[in-house]
Amino acid sequence: MESIISIKGLSKTYAEGFTALNNIDLEIQRGEIFALLGPNGAGKTTLISIICGIVNPSCGDVKVNGHNIQRDYRTARTEIGLVPQEIATDAFETVWAAVRFSRGLFGKAPDPAYLEKILRQLSLWEKKDNKIITLSGGMKRRLMIAKALSHEPNVLFLDEPTAGVDVELRQDMWRMVRGLRDSGVTVILTTHYIEEAEEMADRVGVINRGELVLVEEKHVLMKKMGEKELSLQLPEPLQEIPQILADLPLTLSSDGYQLVYRFDIKSEDTGLTEFLRRLNAANIEFRDLHTRESSLEEIFVNLVHGARLEREEQLSKEVQE
């Protein structure tokens, strides 16, 4: 699939010596929803700011739809719509004036029909003559998206798009984002809501301490790195795990009524057959069972934790040397 954003060898080190990004290589495909996950301070906002031309990189190359963000800044910037996390608007301007002005900033000819279409898609048309100060928080966030789309960009960045938004409005915004993707807009979002990435993203990138830990299609990531649980409900409680089962990856609930076996989805030998054989040998009966796969949140936490341990080990070796 064709890339609409191409990032090669991108790094950013600030004057005081802090490295926010370290040798990032990333290809974002045209027409996908790409979720960028990472803890606070991981480098997500710095990466977005460089692509959008707000921050200058220390080194590396970034192209948006074939246009270099530094050598061909104006053209590259017109390809991008940015919805920052913080809501910043002129409180006493009307909704219509705000989106019309945003379109004009990019040198686009007036197109009332297009702006009406955007406002209707975002359920803002009825509010077009209202001053922004009268809008709810959710409506103001929708307006930020309308302004970002006013100049018809091919790429839309959403930085924490549903922060502080209630559950119902969050669902509405998810539907809206999918609609944008279906219309051909490439959407890149950063989020602290793991379920948001799990619900919407086609691919997921995990960034930690300025380094891209992993980029993978969401369903492949969960298949490759997820863990599955087989939970058995017991008719009689166990006081402890029997010796015949002691070497297996089992946990016993505090009340003794649930036995949980964990296994790796990607492993050729899950050990389930051996587990069930030993259960039978131990004369342990069960009345119900169910399975559960790891969520994207659990995978994310494991990835970040593993990257942190790897970095600490590397630093320890450098100190010893």
How would you describe this structure to a colleague?
The chain has 321 residues and is an alpha/beta fold. It has 2 domains: 3-222, P-loop containing nucleotide triphosphate hydrolases (Rossmann fold, 3-Layer(aba) Sandwich); 227-293, 2-Layer Sandwich (Alpha-Beta Plaits). 36% of the residues lie in helices and 26% in strands. It has helices at 44-51, 73-78, 95-105, 112-121, 137-149, 167-182, 194-200, 218-225, 272-281, 296-320, and strands spanning 3-13, 19-29, 33-37, 59-64, 67-68, 80-83, 155-159, 186-190, 203-208, 211-217, 227-233, 250-252, 258-264, 288-293. The chain has a 6-stranded mixed beta sheet with strand order 6-7-8-3-9-10, with helices on both faces. A 4-stranded antiparallel beta sheet has the order 2-1-4-5. A hairpin with a 2-residue loop joins strand 4 (59-64) and strand 5.
CATH class (first level) name of the largest domain: Alpha Beta
How many domains, in number, for the residues?
2
Radius of gyration: 25 Å
CATH names the topology of the largest domain as Rossmann fold
Pfam family, one: ABC_tran
Keywords: ATP-binding, Nucleotide-binding, Transport
Protein name: ABC transporter ATP-binding protein
Organism: Microbulbifer okhotskensis
Keywords:
AAA+_ATPase; 6-stranded mixed sheet; elongated; 2 domains; transport; ABC transporter ATP-binding protein; 10 helices; Rossmann fold; alpha/beta; ATP binding; 14 strands; 321 residues; 4-stranded antiparallel sheet; Alpha-Beta Plaits
